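Dear Dr. H.,

I hope your travels went smoothly. While you were away I took the liberty of generating a structure for the chain from your last submission, since the lab meeting agenda had it listed for discussion. I wanted you to have the full record in hand beforehand rather than looking at slides cold. The sequence, exactly as received, is reproduced here:
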Amino acid sequence: MHPPSSLSTGQSKAAAVFRVTAGNFLEQFDFFLFGFYATQIANVFFPTESEFASLMMTFAVFGAGFLMRPLGAVVLGAYIDDVGRRKGLIVTLSIMASGTVLIAFVPGYATIGLLAPALVLLGRLLQGFSAGAELGGVSVYLAEMATPGRKGFFTSWQSASQQVAIVVAAGLGFALNQWLSAPAIAAWGWRVPFFVGCMIVPFIFVLRRNLEETQEFKARKHRPSMKDVFGTLVQNWGVVIAGMMLVAMTTTSFYLITVYAPTFGKTVLHLSTADSLLVTLCVGVSNFVWLPIGGALSDKIGRRPLLIGMTVLTIATAYPALSFLAHAPSFMNMLLVLLWLSFMYGIYNGAMVVALTEVMPVQVRVAGFSLAYSLATAVFGGFTPAISTAAIHMTGDKAAPGYWMSFAAVCALLATLTLYRRRAVTLAPAH
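The corresponding predicted structure, in token form, is as follows:
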């Protein structure tokens, strides 16, 4: 007999984790390519005489995708809570893939005029709508199939799979930079990773079709309607808002040290493209290592100590670390600073994701998780590149993104203290 949290006979835990996170890998790979190649995309679809204006328009479109996340979280999250984790995750994958195909194949502004940025925006909105429920669906699936006492460790693989996507995307970018000239990359080379994303889609579909539904979902007697989901979310709006604040540090840190890092290295610190991408690749590997460690530690010592410890550490060190980098820009210094930020992000997020699955009402677990995560990503993470670029431009301080990261950490600390005071029993690690 398997315990209620296990999958049915014939499918190992490792295989289940691989199947669900492989889809998450692709979604995040497609999603983050836009940030990695922001400079090239800006030149092709948003050409202006001002580099700052062009980048700001590009990052605004990047951020627009995040505004769709809350809508996707509620609509697709409710759908997943109704039809099951397996069917829902296949739908999110289909929508994400369609957005990627659009961005990969749309001709530039010089060819089709204003239609080009409009179609890129549409592709981005589709990606955002899909991603709104993807992270919640995957996280809840992993939490529901985890062995007792190891929920934090299992759930951390949702974020860990994102890091594999970062490593692959940065590795592709680094390889292209070595093989192709700068004009070739600007003209067509930046599209190659998007084509790769398109080619991976059929493989991921096969993996997700073979997912088994979790026993916890099968055992549920009542499946909420869309109206029920909305009603429950409204009743628990305080938990959703606190959950959003809890995610603030995760999403801000992540987009700062991964998506924005290559652009920051090239345009602000004036490092080479190769150096910037190599640093991002190393950060992805570092995140991949620290995330499961953070999840496992949260199973052993509890979520609360890790959440408080990492937020306080971020508040104290984020700006000083970036200030040091701004005054002494080099490949090694950029690597050391971002690895430090990666450590704080990895340990924090390893505990945070599972805490967020535990605090949400079980009948709307995917929708509640996804809405909180999506709101945080829309308000904090998605616009981190734009806010960072604007803050540097307005203040003249190259370390200004550190203020934004510290503010997000303050929000996360307050949310942690609030949630653990109000819902200590709910948030305690499951043993």
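Two observations you may find useful: The CA atoms of residues 127 and 346 lie 24 Å apart. Confidence is low (pLDDT under 50) at residues 1-10, 425-431.

With kind regards,
E. W.
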